[in-house]
Design a protein that fits this description.
The chain is α+β, with helices and mostly antiparallel strands. The protein has one domain: lpxc deacetylase, domain 2 (lpxc deacetylase, domain 1, 2-Layer Sandwich), CATH 3.30.1700.10. About 20% of the residues lie in helices and about 30% in strands. It has six helices and 21 strands. Strand 6 and strand 7 form a beta hairpin. Helix 1 packs across helix 2, helix 1 packs across helix 5 and helix 5 runs parallel beside helix 6. The N terminus and C terminus are likely disordered. Belongs to the LpxC family. This is UDP-3-O-acyl-N-acetylglucosamine deacetylase. One of its GO terms (molecular function) is metal ion binding.
Length: about 325
Amino acid sequence: MTNRLDFQTTVADQVTLTGIGVHSGTPASVTLLPADAGTGIVFHRTDVSDDLQTDIPGRWDHVTATALCTVMADPARNGVSTVEHLMAALRGLGVDNVIVEMDGPEMPIMDGSAAAFVEAIDQVGLKRLDRGRRYLRIKKPVRFEQNGAWCELLPYSGTRFEVTIEFETPLIGRQTFASDMTPDVFRKEVSRARTFGQVKEVEKLWAMGFARGSSLENSVAVADDRVLNPEGTRWADEFVRHKTLDAVGDLALAGLPILGLYRSYKAGHRMNVAILAELFSKTGQDVFEIVEAPAWREHGNVERSGLAAAAFGPEVS
């Protein structure tokens, strides 16, 4: 039987989520709309004037900032911010094509994880499209290092994440999450991991006008050596699981599912995007290739699975 993951997908129906923006603290809404094969993930602001109306592809080369979250284009015009949790849910569940309509510059933070996005996608289900899925296969190692932190992409027969973090506070310390990233693993082991921060750092952000929507409802707050959230953490290592969630979302900005191993140490949004820039700077050096699953045929007796070399150029869309 042909593996469902060999075919491109989209959401089976539109679905809307509402909440607040974690930095603005104002109401925010996002609607996921079905899209044709080959569309990819595309962001569309519904609140901007026609002269600013430009759809933003969910790709690394449209990232403009990574300091506090992943930002695409210019949010003051037609861009969007805090896209990583939605991107993680889409990639984690194997959604290839979606139009993402937003009524403002910021994605709703929901509970600080990707759980609400997963639930919304599960609510409407996925629709299989009649075109084979394309993958970006890593053929040679690519590495990026800075200030003692590093990340790398390595050849691997699947999709795997090995993420290590290290914080001075003993509450977090050194943690590692390592697993092949299947939809089942993402849903059960990663999607519910919430964003986190130390109270003293959040107070600095408040003073700067950021994180106005941050609360115990959408983040894990760490003060000294204790968690302030009454319910505690969802896992003892929720911190590294959330960093893994962020990595899944940021690497989804490759534009295609990656067949390879992503390994990192003390990396964040900036380094996750930097490794993609490093990868694509090596186009033509046989470091990666675009491969495609066989197209689905409604008639005929032969079902094929697996990957074949793409019959068209190495563009990423």
